C-alpha cells in the first residue's frame, strides 16, 4: 500500500516538474549559501587552530623579554638549570615563509609537526639533523634551505617548522631565541623567574595574541549573513512546499476516500520530503563547496590583511561540514513542511474538496498579531537584553517579525489605493493586486529578507570601512614608522632623523593589570599629531592639555565597557599612581583593554622599557629620502620601516576584497529571491485564469493584461523594497550597536549610504521584472480557447 | 445482510437540526437501491456514513456485519479499501495519474489488482483509446466512466454512487447508468444510487425517498 500511495504522490511531481524544480532549487540554494559560508568559516578556523598548534599561541604560558626584544640562548639554558620546564622558539620570515624553529626534545607534544604525509623522518627531526616541515604549497614557495622538505598538512599555512639550530642559521640569528614556551606542569622547587633572569615577562595562556579572537567579528558577521541567506531560502522552500501541499489537497482527500489511512499518508509524505531534502541538500552542499572555493581566496586575503591571520586559500572537504549541510537541509524542510503536514493531518475527509486559493491558508490577523509581538520582543531585547544570545534573539525576532508584517501592510496600502481609484480598470488593478498578495507573500517576504540582508550587511561593512579608514588616519598619522631592535639603534634613529624629520615620536608600550584585567599601557609624547587626528567617543574639555599635564589617562572603548571606566573614574596604574579617565577612544579590532598616559609618566612607571617603534613626521615627499638615510646611517633594515601611505593603500585594497565577498553573497541572495518570485508567479499563473478570464471577456486584451501583470509585480517589489530598507537599517543597527558590542566590546558608528540603497532597489526591481517577464509573456499568448474554458468549467 | 442501518442519527455542528433522524435500512448482496430526496435531505450524508467517510452520532452502521461507528480512521480506511467502493459526483480522479493508472489505483491500494479484470472494464466502458490520457483531457462522461472502472476494479461488496450522472447530459447519463448496473450485477455487489432524478431512480428495482432526515 505504501508503494501505491508513494507512486500517486510522486505522480504529482512528474506532472508538475516546475514545482519540483522550485522546491529542489530553493532548498539547494538555501543550503548552498549556508554551507558555503560555513565552509569558509570552518576553513579559516581550522587554519587558526593549525596556527595555534604550530606556534603554541594561546595554549601555553610564554616567557619573553619585557620589551619584546630577542633573548640570548643562554637565558634558556639558565632557566632549565633553575628547574624551569621551558622550550625555546625562534621565528622570522625566510623569503615568503614564516620559519618557526623549535627544540624538538623539549617542545610540548602539540607544537610539532604531528602528522606527516609520508617520507618524513621524525627521528631525524628529533636528532636535529635537519628537516623542514610545511604544507605542500608552502614547501613549493620556500627558498632553498639545503635540507629536505617534508609535507605536513597540520602545519599552519605559509609556515614552516624546523629544528631551532637550522632556523637560527636560516634567519641569520645565531644564539638567539624569541620566546620560551612554558610546559603546563612545573616543579615546585624551581627558582623564581626574576631571580634567574631579570627583565623577563611570564605571559599567561591566551595572552599571546590569539588571532581567532580578532577574527571572530568577521566570522560572526559571515555567520549572520549565512543565517539570513538560509532564512531567505527557507521562505522559498516554505512557499514551494505549501503550494505543493495545497495543490495536492484534493488528491489527499481522494486517497483517503479510497482507503489510504491518514497516518500512513502523512508518513509517506514526510518520507517523500526527506528524500527530496536529501537530494536538494546534496546539490546544495556541492554548490556551497563551489561558492566557498570561489570566495575563499578573497576571504583569506581579507583575514591576512586585516588581522594578520594566515588562512589557507584551498578548500578541504570536511565530513562535519557536509554532514551539517545535509542536516540543515533536512531541518529546514522539516520546519517549512511542519505547518503543511499539520494542516493536512487536521483536514476533514469531507472538507476542502478543491484546492483552496493558496492565499486562504494564510490568515492575516493571526500573523499580524504574531508580527507585532515579535517586533515588540525585538524592541524589548534591544532595551533590556543582556549578552550575545539576547542580541541574536533580537535579530531573529526583528527579521521574522518584519517579514510577517509585510503582507498585512501591503494589503492595507493596496486597499487604500483601491478606495481612491476612479477608473474601472484602475480599481480592478488595485483590487486584483491585493488579491495576489497572499499568493505571492512568501516570495515577497523572501525578497524583503534578501534586500534587508543586503542593506544591513552593506551598511555594516561600509560603516566598518569608513570607521576603519578614519581609525587608520588616526592611528597612522605619522608618515613613517620604524621598528627598533635595541637601545643603540633607537639612539641612531633619533640622531639620523633629527635634521630631516619634523618630529620623532617614540611609541612606548607595556603590559599591565588594570581593574583586574590584562591591558596594554601606552606612553605618548604631547604632540599635534595626536591632538589633530585622534577622535574621541567621549572626552572631558581640554582633554589633551590635561593629559599633557599628567592630570589623567585615556582609555579605549573596550576598557570603558568591560571595566566600567567612564569619564572621571580613577584608574590605578601601580606604584600608588591613580588618575581619572579624561577621554574614551574607539579601538576597533583590538580585543584587549588599553590605557594611554604621557611619555613622562610612562617612563617613570616603566624605566626599563625602551620604545619599540618610532613614528616620524615628515613631508610626504621626503619619506623616501628619510628611509634611505635611516637605512644608510642608522642601519635600519627596509623591512623594519613602514610607509603610512602604503599601509593605508594596502588596507583599502583589503577592504575591496572584503567587498567582493559580501557583494557576491548579496547578489546570490537577491538572485534566490528573484527566483522565488519567478516560481511563485509561474505556479500561480494557472490559478489566475479564472480571475483574468472575466476581465478579458469584458474587453481587456491579453497584451494589456500581461502588461498590467508585469506592472503589478514591479509595484509589489517596489513596495517590498521600501519596507525592506527600513528593516535593513534596523538590522544594521542591531548588528553594529548590539551584537558587536555584546560580542567584542566595541560599537561601530552607523553611516547611511543612500546611493547604495538606490542601486540595490533598482537591482531588486530588475530581478522582479526579469522574474515577471516570462509569466507575463505566457499570459499574453494564452489561447482564447483556454480562457473560454473557464466559463465552460472544463479547465 | 450486506448492509444494516439501525436508528442512525447525524447532526452537523453548524446546523441546529439533525440531518438524519433515526434512519434504518437493510440491503442484501446483489440488491440495487435508488435513494432520492430533495437537496439537503441527507442523501449524501447517509452515503458518507455507509462508506465510512463520516461517523454517525448515534445508531449502528454495519457493513458485512462490521459496525463502522466505533472504528478509528485506520479501521474505516480498511473498510473503504476492501468492502465499499464510492463513485463521486465530482469523479475525484487523481489528476496526475493517467486513465490506466487511475483505473488500477484502488485495486492496487487494496492489494486486489487483476490486470485481466481491468482490461474487461476498460473495454466494457469504452476507455481503450484514452488509457494514456490524463483526466483533464477527458470529457465529463469519460471521467465518470473512469471513476466507475476504478471503483469496480477491486470488486467491492457494496458500491455507493453519489449522483454519478449529475454532471452529465441525459443520453450520457442513461448510458453510464446502464453500464454501471450491468457491471455491478456481474460482480454480485450491492448498489446504492443517490440521485435527484426520478427517471433514473425508476430504473432500479428498489427505491427509497429521504425526507426531513427520515426514510419514506
Write the layout of secondary structure elements.
The complex is a heterodimer of chains A (795) and B (216).
Chain A: H1 2-15, H2 17-55, E1 61-65, E2 71-72, H3 73-81, E3 86-94, E4 97-102, H4 122-126, E5 132-134, H5 136-141, E6 149-151, E7 159-163, H6 164-170, E8 176-177, E9 179-182, H7 193-196, E10 200-203, H8 211-247, H9 249-257, H10 262-307, H11 319-346, H12 364-384, H13 388-420, H14 424-475, E11 480-483, H15 487-497, E12 503-514, E13 517-524, H16 528-533, E14 536-539, H17 543-548, E15 553-556, H18 557-563, E16 570-574, E17 577-585, E18 593-598, H19 599-605, E19 613-617, H20 623-634, E20 641-643, H21 644-697, H22 702-744, H23 754-780, H24 784-792
Parallel strand pairs in A: 4-7, 5-6, 13-18, 15-17
Antiparallel strand pairs in A: 1-9, 1-10, 2-8, 3-4, 3-9, 5-7, 11-19, 11-20, 12-13, 12-19, 14-17, 15-18, 16-17
Helix pairs in contact in A: 1-2, 1-10, 2-8, 2-10, 2-11, 2-21, 8-11, 8-14, 8-21, 10-11, 10-21, 12-13, 13-14, 13-22, 14-21, 14-22, 14-23, 15-20, 21-23, 21-24, 22-23
Chain B: E1 3-10, E2 20-27, E3 32-37, H1 43-50, E4 58-63, E5 66-67, H2 73-82, E6 84-87, H3 99-109, H4 115-124, H5 140-152, E7 158-162, H6 170-187, E8 190-194, H7 198-201, E9 206-211, E10 214-215
Parallel strand pairs in B: 3-8, 3-9, 6-7, 7-8
Antiparallel strand pairs in B: 1-2, 1-4, 4-5, 9-10
Helix pairs in contact in B: 3-5, 5-6
Task: Give a quick precis of the structure.
The complex is a heterodimer of chains A (795) and B (216). With 795 residues, chain A is α+β, with helices and mostly antiparallel strands. Helices cover 62% and strands 13% of the residues of chain A.
